[in-house]
Design brief:
The strands form 3 sheets. A 6-stranded antiparallel sheet has the order 2-1-4-5-7-6. It has a 6-stranded mixed sheet with strand order 8-12-13-3-14-15, sandwiched between helices. The chain has 463 residues and is of the alpha/beta class. The protein has helices spanning 42-54, 59-62, 136-143, 171-177, 187-190, 197-220, 227-240, 274-294, 326-339, 352-355, 380-388, 391-395, 408-426, 431-443, 449-462, and strands spanning 2-11, 14-20, 30-36, 76-84, 101-111, 119-123, 126-132, 157-160, 248-254, 257-262, 265-268, 313-317, 343-349, 363-366, 376-377. Helix 6 (197-220) crosses helix 7 (227-240), helix 6 (197-220) packs across helix 8 (274-294) and helix 13 (408-426) crosses helix 14. It has 3 domains: 2-194 and 312-395, Rossmann fold (3-Layer(aba) Sandwich), CATH 3.40.50.300; 196-308, no CATH class; 408-462, no CATH class.
Length: 463
């Protein structure tokens, strides 16, 4: 399953917004990035994608409070999506015929009396109901396909919020996380009190099942299936293939946990730093969700030089750069796309390095709160400047909107240098001014450079 287009109407800060995720060649897998200032609605977009792909019947399980979701002064809001599906991997309880695309729709209605057959959330004295919308045929197919989300039938969706902790979930959140009907795969996207511990438990469960099969095989004195061991071995090879920096290696799984090696130290996953924990917890959970979705023990393929997972699906990651060093931010997107080549990643970020990994046609700018400008996909010129330029180049585009990429202290030094430079052009500097000029030039790492020359010319014209 992939999402081709998402349309929002009067949802939170969005009046009308459309996201077209098609590449220039029409493909949909790859790395899509939503960038914008705080409060621009990036997290909202990910949540609406999860909602429309899972359907209205999951809202009670996710315990979403829809108060405030409909834009002020609007009576209703809409979430519409066009999805593509694989007739072999994504299964229906009713034949979809020759279809390869499906329209899904949700409506958020504000009213004072509850709708039947809907999830109602209280917001002061106002009710908000989430109901399905669309044609009768489309809704029937949705309820017998993507909105059903039976394990082993496809319709892969995973969503991860910014708090990708390994432990510390609440009791209520744990019930949501453990739900195998499709809700658990997006729990951390909606709940800050959810964790990703189930990925680690999944790996340990594979190990336990392997031990039991090995014991049975030994008793029977004949070969048995070692699918759990094969999958765990594949997980190790996948992680070892360039994911981890700083010499950290996969060390296997046992009944005590998931283990890694750093030099002479053997460490459990829980003992690693935040960046390692959050990234590895996400990866293990993603593999768990893929196995749950497709029901396959042959999850990871090793036929080429790169171990990879061939299955399609949609993966949502909020603040993809969380806890990561810039060097790891640079590598995260390319690594995930290389090892999960058929997944459609849609991520949010404030990092230029995450943006530089975007697939062609996959950079979207969201405007700050109060702006009337629409959401837009970056055009070719700006896209290539972000992707192929430096981090400074990316920060100075409209995607981030910075006027300069240096600090406020550096800006004051540059202003002072410009003033001294203008004076030096017009007259002689005093010894004190000359010393100050040299001191500033020493402190600025690149010296005057073209930016300073430009400032000097501007100041000259002003004089």
């Amino acid at each position: 399953m992939y999402i081709e287009r998402l349309t929002l109407r009067d949802i939170k800060g969005f009046g009308e917004a459309e996201f077209d995720f098609r590449r220039p060649d029409g493909s949909l897998a790859g790395w899509n990035v939503l960038a914008g200032r705080n409060g621009s609605g990036k997290s909202t977009v990910l949540k609406t994608i999860a909602m429309v792909l899972r359907g209205p019947q999951y809202a009670p399980k996710m315990e979403i409070d829809f108060g405030g979701w409909v834009r002020q002064r609007a009576k209703s809001g809409g979430i519409d999506a066009i999805i593509h599906f694989d007739p072999h991997g994504d299964q229906f309880q009713k034949s979809p015929g020759d279809r390869r695309r499906l329209e899904l729709g949700l409506e958020l209605d504000v009213f004072f009396q509850a709708h039947a057959d809907s999830f109602v959330a209280m917001d002061s004295d106002v009710h908000t109901a989430l109901v399905a919308s669309g044609s009768k045929t489309a809704l029937e197919l949705a309820r017998k396909g993507p909105w059903l989300a039976i394990p082993g039938t496809g319709w892969m969706l995973a969503g991860y919020g910014p708090f990708r902790r390994l432990r510390g979930e609440s009791r209520d959140a744990h019930k949501v996380m453990s739900d195998t009907s499709g809700v658990g795969s997006v729990a951390t996207l909606f709940r800050e009190d959810a964790s990703l511990i189930d990925g680690s438990i999944w790996a340990q469960d594979l190990w336990t099942r392997h031990q039991l099969r090995e014991a049975q095989r030994s008793k029977r004195k004949r070969p048995g299936t070692l699918a759990g061991a094969d999958l765990l071995s594949g997980v190790g090879r996948l992680i070892e293939h360039g994911l981890l920096p700083d010499g950290i290696r996969w060390a296997g799984v046992d009944d005590e946990g998931v283990w890694f090696q750093q030099g002479s130290f053997r460490l459990r996953l829980e003992q690693l730093s935040d960046g390692f924990r959050s990234t590895l917890a996400l990866l293990l959970d993603l593999l768990r969700q893929l196995q749950l979705t497709y029901g396959s023990t042959q999850l990871i393929e090793h036929g080429s030089e790169v171990p990879h997972v061939p299955h399609p699906g949609v993966v949502l990651i909020d603040e993809a750069e969380t806890h990561l060093h810039p060097g790891w931010q640079q590598r995260l997107g390319p690594w995930l796309v290389q090892h999960f080549p058929n997944l459609q990643f849609i991520v949010t970020t404030h990092s230029p390095f995450i943006c530089q990994s975007a697939s062609e046609g996959g950079l979207f700018k969201l405007e700050p709160p109060g702006s009337e400008e629409p959401v837009r996909k970056l055009d070719d010129d700006e896209f290539w400047r972000v992707v192929n330029g430096s981090a400074d180049d990316a920060l100075l585009t409209s995607l981030f909107g910075l006027e300069q990429s240096h600090s406020q202290h550096s800006e004051r030094l540059r202003d002072e240098l410009a003033r001294l430079g203008v004076k030096q052009l017009r007259t002689r500097l005093t010894k004190k001014e000359q010393a100050r000029l040299h001191e500033i030039e020493r402190q600025l790492p690149t010296g005057p450079g073209p930016e300073i020359e430009k400032l000097l010319r501007v100041r000259q014209k002003e004089d």
